[in-house]
C-alpha cells in the first residue's frame, strides 16, 4: 500500500472552526494513509502474522491495526481520542445487528490509558507499537514515555516495542510547513504541549532509555505526502493536531491560510500537492 492522492474536498470547512469529529474524519480519510508505508515496512521486518499479539498505543482511526489484522495478528488498540477511536471501531468491528462475526484478529479497541488493555485471555502481548511519530510536538516524548510505562508490564519479557518519529529535517519536505505552527504559536499563552518544535536525531533513543527499553535496530521509510489539491492538503495537515497550539494562539482561518502559503512550493502544475518525507522507526526489546 502506498499513499494515494485523495479526492477533492470543499475548502469551506477550513475557513471556520470545525469540531473534533470532523477533524478525526479528515485524519482517517486524508492523512492517515500517508503513514501506510511505515506500518507495512515495520510489519514486514518483524514478520507480523498469526503468532503476533499486538498492542497499538495511540491507534487512532485504526489503519495500522487493520493491516496487522489482515496479516493474521491478534490486535488491540488504545487511544484517548474518542472520535478517532469511533472511526477505528467502524473499520474493524461488525456493526450493530450484523450477522458477521468478529473480523480476522478479533480486534479490541479501548478508550484511555494503556493499563486498561490487559489481554482478555491473560496471554501477554509480544509486540507493542507507537506509530504516532514523535519529535516535532512539545511534550510528545513525555506522553509516550508515560504510555510505555503503562503498557510494557502487559507484554512478555523480551517482547518487541516499535517507536516511530520524523526523519532528518533535510529529508522531510513537510518540515518548513510544520514551522508555521511554531511561528504562529510564539508568544502564545496557550499550553506548550502540542506546539511544534524542531526534532532531533536522538528523540527515539531518549524515549527508549527513559522507558527502560533496549534499542535493537532501526530503519527509515519513505512516506511521501500526496494530496489531490490544496484544500485536501490543508485539511489533512491540520488533522494531525500539530497545529492546535497555533490555532489557539491565532485562529483557524489564519493557520489554514499560512499553511496553504507554505505548501505552494510543493504544488504541481496539475494542482496536486506532493512532499517527499522520511520517517524513522526504532526497534526495542522489553
Automatic annotation (TrEMBL):
UniProt-listed InterPro entries: Methyltransf_11 (IPR013216), SAM-dependent_MTases_sf (IPR029063)
Domain of life: Bacteria
Region named Disordered: 92-117
Any coiled-coil regions, as ranges: none
Name this polypeptide is given: SAM-dependent methyltransferase
Gene Ontology biological process terms in this record: methylation
GO molecular function, one term: S-adenosylmethionine-dependent methyltransferase activity
Keyword entries, A-Z: Methyltransferase, Transferase
Domain Methyltransferase type, residue spans: 55-92
Gene3D superfamilies tied to this protein: Vaccinia Virus protein VP39
Amino acid at each position: 500500500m502506498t499513499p494515494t492522492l485523495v479526492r477533492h474536498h470543499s475548502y469551506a470547512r477550513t475557513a471556520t472552526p470545525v469540531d473534533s469529529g470532523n477533524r478525526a474524519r479528515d485524519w482517517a480519510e486524508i492523512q492517515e494513509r500517508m503513514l501506510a508505508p511505515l506500518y507495512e515496512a515495520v510489519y514486514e521486518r518483524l514478520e507480523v502474522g498469526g503468532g503476533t499479539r499486538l498492542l497499538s498505543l495511540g491507534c487512532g482511526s485504526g489503519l495500522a491495526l487493520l493491516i496487522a489484522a489482515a496479516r493474521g495478528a491478534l490486535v488491540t488498540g488504545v487511544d484517548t481520542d474518542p472520535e478517532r477511536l469511533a472511526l477505528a471501531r467502524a473499520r474493524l468491528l461488525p456493526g450493530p445487528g450484523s450477522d458477521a462475526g468478529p473480523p480476522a484478529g478479533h480486534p479490541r479497541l479501548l478508550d484511555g490509558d494503556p493499563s486498561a488493555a490487559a489481554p482478555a485471555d491473560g496471554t501477554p502481548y509480544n509486540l507493542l507499537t507507537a506509530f504516532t511519530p514523535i519529535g516535532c510536538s512539545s511534550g510528545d516524548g513525555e506522553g509516550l514515555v508515560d504510555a510505555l510505562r503503562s503498557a510494557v508490564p502487559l507484554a512478555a519479557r523480551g517482547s518487541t516495542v516499535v517507536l516511530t518519529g520524523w526523519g532528518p529535517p533535510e529529508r522531510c519536505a513537510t518540515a518548513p510547513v510544520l514551522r508555521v505552527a511554531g511561528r504562529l504559536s510564539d508568544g502564545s499563552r496557550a499550553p506548550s504541549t502540542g506546539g511544534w518544535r524542531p526534532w532531533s536525531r536522538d528523540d527515539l533513543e531518549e524515549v527508549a532509555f527513559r522507558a527502560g527499553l533496549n534499542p535493537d535496530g532501526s530503519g527509515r521509510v519513505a512516506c511521501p505526502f500526496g494530496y489531490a489539491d490544496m484544500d485536501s492538503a490543508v485539511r489533512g495537515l491540520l488533522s494531525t493536531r500539530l497545529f492546535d497550539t497555533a490555532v489557539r494562539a491565532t485562529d483557524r482561518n489564519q493557520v489554514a491560510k499560512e499553511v496553504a502559503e507554505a505548501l505552494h512550493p510543493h504544488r504541481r502544475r496539475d494542482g496536486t500537492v506532493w512532499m517527499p518525507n522520511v520517517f524513522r522507526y526504532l526497534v526495542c526489546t522489553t
